[in-house]
């Protein structure tokens, strides 16, 4: 559970902004989206490999190694 303490005289919008930022850092929404559909481990691994290949190509194009 996320707890945000509102300080005396603090604007409610500011406290809401802190809550949203804290919520985003917990990565709860991302985890819920990932759990929505089951992915086989082999498919997850394939996606990781393809992403790594893509990153390497981009870095090579930029001249960084």
Summarize this structure briefly.
Helix content is 69%, strand content 0%. It has helices spanning 12-25, 28-36, 41-62.
Oligomeric form: single chain
Strand percent estimate: under 5%
Mean pLDDT: 90
Radius of gyration, whole Å:
20 Å
Q: What's the number of domains?
A: 1
Q: Low-confidence runs (pLDDT<50, min 5 residues)?
A: none
What is the strand and helix layout of this fold?
Layout: H1 12-25, H2 28-36, H3 41-62
Structure explained in plain terms:
69% of the residues lie in helices and 0% in strands. It is elongated and about 50 Å long. It has 65 residues and is an all-alpha fold. The chain has one domain. The model has no long low-confidence stretch (mean pLDDT 90).
Summary keywords:
65 residues; mainly alpha; 3 helices
């Amino acid at each position: 559970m996320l707890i945000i303490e509102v300080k005396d005289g603090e604007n409610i919008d500011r406290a809401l902004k802190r809550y949203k930022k804290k919520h985003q850092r917990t990565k709860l929404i991302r985890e819920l989206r990932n759990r929505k559909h089951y992915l086989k481990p082999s498919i997850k691994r394939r996606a990781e490999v393809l992403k790594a290949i893509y990153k390497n190509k981009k870095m090579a194009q930029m001249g960084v190694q």
